[in-house]
Design brief:
Low-confidence stretches: none
Helix content: over 70%
Strand order of the largest sheet: 1-2
Mean pLDDT: 88
Radius of gyration: 21 Å
Order of helices and strands: HEEHHEEHHHH
Number of helices: 7
Number of strands: 4
Amino acid sequence: MPLAIPDTWLWFCIAFGVTLFTTLIMSLQSRFFYTVDVVVRRFTIMDLEFAANEKELENILVGINKLVAFKAGIVTVDKEKVSRALKGQIIVDFLLFMPAAYGGIFLLCMKVASQMGQFGQLTFSMLAWAQILAFLLDAVENVYLLHAIGNAKKKEQQPGLQTSALFAYPTFRLIEALKWGIALTGAVSGLSVIFHSWVSGHYSSRTYPYIWIFAGEFLLFVGISWILSKRRKNARDDE
């Protein structure tokens, strides 16, 4: 059965705002994401999460420790800064992004469940509670990545060293698939029902303020992202 959560849309807007805010923080951290993979190149957290195999993941992480300090736009990049930024992003992800993102999907699914019939209530309540599993899987993934970062540093310092794996890489890939599958199913299904309700005219006038809050948060996020992107481009052009 769905939970009766007072001011669900208000809490959802707060969760959405925190999600966007932490996305900006992680975007700033990613400025330092460089590695040596034959040549110096950029990488993203998605490159780690969706590496084709364990060797590709290891090459990216070991390559961080091969970096020689260089100038990238207005920032100086070296292996210590890259390592700190990467670990910092994982910590921000765990402490802020994950609770806000999965919590927001939980609230969305519970709100949808409260407005549906028996089958819909059961389905969306299950999707809501499944976000707890997605959160736990994401936490395990973060532990795996932190462990892999530590192993990569040891291997760079002692090339012949055999380091222990936290668990097999195929298990990591399975965790990734389950995490993204649960989260995306909940978010897409919940939003689809909400949009259908609006198009069909089945909505309450009390939701108007939250729509403006939601839209305002999104537009502010897009605006700040554009400004940051412009500044980075100008810095590269000035090199």
